[in-house]
Amino acid sequence: MSNANVDLDLCFEIAVDLAIKSGERVYKVLCEKKTFKTKKNPIDLVTETDQEIEKFIFGELRKTFPTHRFIGEESTSLSGELNHLTDEPTWILDPVDGTMNFVHGLPYVAVSIALTEIGVIYAVGEQCLYTARKGKGAFRGTERLKVSKACDVSSSLVLTELMHMNCDGDENLVIKNVGNIFMNSRGVRVIGSAVMSALAVASGQAEAYFHYKLQCWDMAAIWLFITEAGGVIIDPNGSKFKLMENRMLCANSESLAHQISELLTDITFP
């Protein structure tokens, strides 16, 4: 995506305002009874709030940036269109990351907005704004984020997700991978939100996070937080990270990322 003729300061200012307004709305309904639908199967949920927030954010952005492109979880799910990136400025949005947590009243939920060199996240349970800009750092409020200094798997807390295993080959690979990391690390945790998991790494609360079944809207903002906080992000197989490949491994250092990668058996989803 090109930044030519894009006022990044204005984009950042508007993204912050929309993230706060949307996050506060999500917080208000977090503990209320929520209605939800399923997408392709009973575990793929979408709430009225997901749809409402995406419509609100994209609607407001289009008023100021009518020529920009937009990729959002809910609109993409409804249209069935494949996501692709071009040289045009493109906003990527996850209106409610951690929808299953949200439905069940768990606080690990976030609103995530990204545009090339900008990442803005509202952590709903914390009622806190996180921001990142390329070359300018990553912050929780005004506090600069920094990854931890643990340098070995044995002293690391690793986060992941127990996704449903509709994957090619051995269905036990997900459990096998978690077991391998568990046996070699300080511990493994699952919190149900890619965004909140990655923020934990960027904040130094955990050392690494990996997942094989994500979408670009899960990762668009968080890669910037990881790198600006001093961490790295790669493909779980050890190769270069690609946003549209739907998989990632982030860690506090390149060394730790590759240590973890070597413990994982690669998983391919159709």
Automatic annotation (TrEMBL):
Any GO MF annotation of the entry: inositol monophosphate 1-phosphatase activity
Record key words, sorted: Hydrolase, Magnesium, Metal-binding
Enzyme class, first EC level, given as a word: hydrolase
Coiled-coil intervals: none
InterPro entries recorded: IMPase, Inositol_monoP_metal-BS, Inositol_monoPase_Li-sen, Inositol_monophosphatase-like
Family: Belongs to the inositol monophosphatase superfamily.
Full protein name: Inositol-1-monophosphatase
UniProt source species: Strigamia maritima
